[in-house]
Amino acid sequence: MKNHWVREHFAAGQVIFNEGDIGQDAYLIEHGKINITSQRGEQIKILATIDQGDLFGEIALIDNMTRTASAIAAEDATLIRISRDLVVSKLKHADPLLSHILQIIVDRYRAALGATQQSGEIRSEDGLHKLRDYAVNQIKIAQNLSDALTNSEFELHYQPVVYLDDGRLGGFEALIRWNQPNVGFISPLGFIGVAEDCGLIVPIGRWVLSTALSALTQFQSAMDRLHPNQAPLFMSINVSARQLQEFGEIDELSALIRASGIDPARIKLEVTESALIEHPETAVLALRQLKELGVLLAIDDFGTGYSSLSYLSMFPLDTLKIDQSFVATMLESEGSMRITRAIAGLARDLGMNCIAEGIEHAGDIAALREMQCEFGQGYHYSKPRNHASLLEYIELHGAGRQA
Ligand code: C2E
Ligand code: CA
Ligand code: CA
Predict the structure, then answer these.
(1) How many CA atoms, within 13 angstroms, populate the side-chain half-sphere of residue 41?
(2) Which residues pair with 163 in a beta bridge?
(3) Edge-to-edge strand ranges of the sheet holding 55-56
(4) Cystine design at 14: which of 10, 114, 257, 385 (Cβ 3.0–4.6 Å)?
(5) Are 171 and 268 in contact (CB under 8 A)?
(6) Are 42 and 97 in contact (CB under 8 A)?
(7) Is 160 in the pocket of ligand 1 (CB under 6 A)?
């Protein structure tokens, strides 16, 4: 293989590259000092002076980007030149998880670059710092995530889902939380995306399924003891697109469902619209296979995707979940009210039931009942609760609550 690992010497004052050049290489400073400068009109401004151990020009490793600043040797310096080819070939031979994580970070860096470049922000030091912080943070999350499962740092919280007509408890939605040591609770919005990108969502998703099912067994027995003769409760579980696409994963999930001994008709799997339309062929096969087991399928965040409605009939769906952005604004916005009503009507026409999420005010309930939306969930009824707190909820409200 061609040797990409090149050591170069620069005399004080010598230019390494100029602002505006197209770059292929990054440089690691082995010895000496480098000024990073930027020209504004006649004036040359020193943005930073960096020395031994520092890396510069690394954006070239990501893309054929033009240099955003010049680099000039502040004193005699020895640099190790790192070519993009080298990085690409090393990545091909690296541990697959590591190379996957890096690839994602590179993609995100590139996307962020595109966005900031358009706004002109990349030209500023501040813009570059923001990018770097973002990339570093993504790496940290991915690294910490891989330990989180083994260290039992995940926890499920459960949000009650109620029958809108009489406030009876129908079931729950399981929502993951990451209790990271020295950091505290992290919202899924902060890590599910990274977990999806690096594939960790697959083992995390299995853990969510088996934990939620064993919780359902416990919640049901509390219900049977405290409030006998109520309809059996269900558990809604969020499933990512990635879990549907992984070969053999549906067999794994099916095995977990069988092992739980729970009637599959009490298990509702929630997938988002975008998960269905990204790879509709695999998604449809995966969902049919799950459906054969007897589980229920819900489409989450309905109305927020970019899809056409024609795909709805392709998938064996039981439930539409009206996104909280419509429900939350329905009383102030005639548009949201119309969309909410249209989705509830669509669910009815397609023979599905519907869940309105994000109910925060008692005032929302009357409108949703009038639309014949069956289920609701939201802070008005209860925030997501941990296991112990959910058992208290069952004790207090298991037999129904005033709406
Ligand atoms: P989602 O599935 O749409 O979950 C509903 C989110 O809305 C939850 O946020 C919930 O706490 C919040 N919420 C519920 N009621 C209200 C309300 O009345 N008002 C407001 N403002 N918010 C309400 P959370 O728990 O932060 O979850 C965010 C997203 O993370 C979920 O959105 C879901 O897409 C994803 N997620 C959570 N747990 C899992 C999981 O186990 N697996 C996967 N793949 N994704 C998950
Ligand atoms: Ca959901
Ligand atoms: Ca949702």
Answers:
(1) 1
(2) 375
(3) 6-10, 77-83, 25-31, 55-56
(4) 10
(5) yes
(6) no
(7) no
Q: Which of 196, 238, 361, 368 to mutate to test the pocket of ligand 1 (most atoms within 8 A of CB)?
A: 238
The CB-based long-range contact list for 222-226 (8 Å cut-off, 24+ gap) reads: 222/391, 222/394, 222/395, 222/398, 223/169, 223/394, 223/398, 226/394, 226/395, 226/398, 226/399
Bridge pairing between strands 169-180 and 234-238: parallel
Q: Are 276 and 251 in contact (CB under 8 A)?
A: no
Can you tell me the distance from the alpha carbon of 236 to that of 220, in angstroms, rounded to the nearest whole number?
14
pTM: 0.75
Q: Can you tell me the mean pLDDT for 100-119?
A: 65
Residue 156 predicted with pLDDT over 90: yes
Q: What is the pLDDT of residues 379-392, one digit of tens each?
A: 999 999 999 999 99
Res 110 pLDDT > 90: no
What is the residue-averaged pLDDT of the chain?
A: 88
Phi, psi of 262, deg, nearest 5: -85, 140
Backbone angles phi, psi at 199, to 5 degrees: 85, -5
Chosen CATH of 152-397 out of 2.40.37.10, 3.20.20.450, 2.60.40.1730, 3.40.120.10: 3.20.20.450
What does the pLDDT look like over 22-69, one tens digit per residue? 888 899 898 999 999 988 788 888 988 999 888 898 877 766 677 888
CA–CA dist 70, 73 (Å, integer): 10
Residues in the chain: 403
Question: CA angle, 116 as apex, 111 and 121 as ends, to 5°?
Answer: 160
Question: Ligand 1 within 6 A of 361 CB?
Answer: no
CATH superfamily of 5-140: Jelly Rolls (2.60.120.10)
- Rounded-to-integer distance, Cα 171 and Cα 393, Å: 12
Distance 176 CA to ligand 3 centre (A): 13
Of ligand 1's listed atoms, the one at least distance from the Cα of 301 is 3
pLDDT per position as a tens digit, 322-377: 999 999 999 999 999 999 999 999 999 999 999 999 999 999 999 999 999 999 99
* Bridge partners, residue 159, by sequence: 173
Judged by average pLDDT, the poorest of 107-111, 200-204, 213-217, 247-251 is 107-111
**How remote is the CA of residue 355 from the centroid of ligand 3, in Å?**
10
